[in-house]
Every structure is written in structure tokens, then in C-alpha cells.
Write a structure and sequence with these properties.
34% of the residues lie in helices and 24% in strands. The chain is an alpha/beta fold and 326 residues long. The chain has a five-stranded mixed β-sheet with strand order 1-7-6-4-5, with helices on both faces. A four-stranded mixed β-sheet has the order 8-13-12-11, with helices on both faces. The chain has a two-stranded antiparallel ribbon with strand order 2-3.
Length: 326
């Protein structure tokens, strides 16, 4: 049976840059605190005309071009996002129409920062069972739309960005070798947006109370993130019969440079094998891993035949890891 692999990648970032110095003017914080505690120096913020679907289409076109495919070749479109254009319909529907893809299956997937790994794992099943030949998976987040720029615990961390991967059948030994996904809803209240959904519809009161903004218990999440990413990474490496020394690249979700460093150290991965772009883009949630992937592919850091480990953690809480031979 053929394996599923990533045939092309693409990414799109909003134009506007928000530096730590800009944030110093908005909340009581400092460049030194943000850099030391998170590793972030700047992040992107989408303008009014830059929507989740528009940036997704830009990223998708680049990924299709790299894969040598046309929108009509797609059998499935999965948009992983927790910041959709609107609650109804799915952002995937807008992407499909704007790309000019045929009326293939297209849907959104909500797994927060683990979303791209959830997406490629779903795509892999469709490809391996033969029900899809080419699947577009997008990680797209404009979390700045849900950020309270008076809350220093969250506004310094998150940034906007989008990236895409086109998956299709590849010849073994290439392709996805092992994957594992988890959700633990007991931690749902550690990272959430209280209002705007059916539990608490948007009202004057919810808006005045700032309940449409992201709330995060960062300190508690930090420990769960490190433990979960370490654990799931070990398990997929064992499943794939790959030891850390054999890896060419480790791409962790860019949540916090200190989380990356803690996971790397626990796994025993050589520092040179870890990719990090958090200083330039911040935490872009479901776009984080595919933006890294795209940068690595385009810069030649990731080459065909290389073994890559990707590991993520996000709201839900969700976590997962994938090992693949590029
Ligand atoms: N600037 C300056 N000080 C800040 C600050 C900021 N932006 N944010 C928090 N602080 C302060 C706190 O108020 C606290 O002050 P106090 O000691 O006087 O009470 C102090 O810094 C330490 O706060 P704490 O929350 O313990 O900081 P931290 O070292 O845990 O860093 C995060 C905060 C959010 C950066 C970190 O916890 C984190 O990255 N968490 C994980 C997030 C995550 O994984 N989310 C899920 C995946 S997206």
C-alpha cells in the first residue's frame, strides 16, 4: 500500500509586524521580559482585508504550485482553524470557491495549535484507503482578532499566519511513518474564548466584559505542554522505530522557546536539529508547524529522504506527533 506524503508546501503571512517595542506602548511589559520568557521578538497582525480564507488561498496556491498540481486535482480540502472567516459556513468552503477547486469534500477542523497534525493525520487515512488522491491541508489562524491588547498574558504571544501542505501518495520508505493524536477536555478551561458561541452568545454585556477574547492559564499549560509533547513524541518515534539521533529535523509547535527547549532536552535531540522561527512570527497556533515546514523546504533545510518529527500541543487540550520521511 502506498504511503501518504507532503508533495508541496506554501505559507502566507500578513504584512503588518508588531514588535515587542510596539507592545510596550500597549501593555505593561518589556522587550526583555517577552524575549527571555517566550523567545518572541515580533509577530504579524492581519489587516482588515486580510482574512483567514484569503491568506489560506495564497498559501494553498504556493503549495499546489510546488506539488505541480492544479486546484481541480484536489479531492479533499481540510482547513484547520479556530479563527474562521465567520461561524457559518466553513472557511474551507470559501477557500474551495476562491481556489476554483471542483465540488470536492471541504471542511474545517478545530484542534487549535495541534490542528495541522490532526489535519494531515486525517488526510493520510483518506489517501491510504484510496478515497482521495490529493488532499489540501491548511493551518490558518488570525488569532489577533480574538486578542485583548490589554491582556499582557496573551497579546505578546500569539501572531497571525497561514500555511498549507498538499498530500498525496508517495513510494515507501517516504511518507508518514507514525502518528498519534490526543484530546483531554478536562483542561478545556485553560485556554478558551468564553463568549460568541452557543453557550454564551455575543451580546453587549459579553463584549463589554471582554468575553470574546482569548483567556489563558499559561503557567499551568506550560507544564502540561512539555509533558504531553515529550510523551507523544517518544511514542511515535518508538512506533516508527526511529531514534532521536536518526532525525534530520525536529519541528515542535512554536508555543514558547522555553517549551521547545525543555521538550528537546528531554527527548535528547541535538539542538542543531530543532527548527525555531518563534522570534519572527510568535505562536501562530495551527499555522505554526506548517509555516516552519514551508520555511525548511524552501531553504533546503528539509530534503527528500530526511526523517522529520513534528510535535504539537494546544487548546482543548489537544496534542499529537507525526514522524515522516520527507
Ligand atoms: N510582561 C511582563 N510580565 C508579565 C507578562 C508580560 N507580557 N505576562 C505575565 N507577566 C508576569 C505575571 O504577571 C507574573 O507576575 P507576578 O510574579 O508579579 O505575579 C510573572 O510575569 C510570571 O507570570 P507567569 O504566568 O508565571 O509567567 P510564565 O513564565 O509562565 O510565562 C507564558 C507566561 C504565557 C509566556 C508561559 O506560561 C507560556 O508560554 N505558557 C504556555 C502557553 C501554551 O503552551 N499555550 C498552549 C499552546 S498555544
Amino acid at each position: 500500500m502506498a504511503s501518504a506524503g507532503i508533495l508541496g508546501t506554501g505559507s502566507a503571512l500578513p504584512k503588518k509586524i508588531i514588535t515587542n517595542a510596539d507592545l510596550e506602548k500597549m501593555v505593561e511589559t518589556s522587550d526583555q521580559w517577552i524575549t527571555e520568557r517566550t523567545g518572541i521578538r515580533e509577530r504579524r497582525q492581519a489587516g482588515p482585508d486580510e482574512t483567514t480564507s484569503k491568506l489560506s488561498v495564497q498559501a494553498a496556491r504556493k503549495a499546489l504550485e510546488m506539488a505541480g498540481l492544479k486546484p481541480q486535482d484536489l479531492d479533499l480540502i481540510i482547513c484547520s482553524t479556530i479563527s474562521p472567516d465567520m461561524p457559518l459556513p466553513s472557511t474551507a468552503a470559501f477557500i474551495q470557491a476562491e481556489l476554483g477547486a471542483r465540488s470536492c469534500c471541504a471542511f474545517d477542523l478545530a484542534a487549535a495549535c495541534s490542528g495541522f497534525l490532526f489535519g494531515i493525520t486525517v488526510a493520510e487515512k483518506f489517501i491510504r484507503t484510496g478515497s482521495s488522491r490529493h488532499v489540501l491541508v491548511i493551518g490558518a489562524e488570525l488569532l489577533s482578532r480574538y486578542l485583548d491588547y490589554k491582556d499582557r498574558a496573551t497579546c505578546v504571544i500569539f501572531g497571525d499566519g497561514v500555511a498549507a501542505g498538499v498530500l498525496g501518495a508517495v513510494e515507501p520508505p517516504s511518507g508518514i511513518l507514525a502518528e498519534e493524536l490526543h484530546t483531554e477536555g478536562a483542561y478545556a478551561d485553560h485556554l478558551f474564548i468564553p463568549a460568541g458561541g452557543t453557550a454564551k452568545p455575543a451580546s453587549r454585556e459579553t463584549v463589554e466584559g471582554g468575553e470574546h477574547y482569548i483567556k489563558m492559564r499559561g503557567n499551568e499549560l506550560f507544564k502540561v505542554a512539555v509533558r504531553s509533547m515529550e510523551d507523544v513524541s517518544r511514542r511515535v518515534l518508538t512506533q516508527a522505530q526511529v531514534c532521536p539521533e536518526q532525525l534530520s529535523l525536529f519541528i515542535p509547535h512554536q508555543a514558547n522557546q522555553r517549551i521547545t527547549e525543555a521538550v528537546r532536552e528531554r527527548l535528547g535531540v541535538n539542538p542543531e536539529k530543532v527548527y525555531s522561527n518563534i522570534s519572527r512570527v510568535g505562536n501562530t497556533s495551527s499555522a505554526s508547524i506548517p509555516i516552519c515546514l514551508d520555511e525548511c523546504v524552501r531553504s533546503g533545510r528539509l530534503k527528500r529522504g530526511d526523517l522529520v518529527l513534528m510535535s504539537a500541543f494546544g487548546a482543548g487540550v489537544t496534542w499529537g506527533a507525526v514522524v515522516m520521511r520527507w
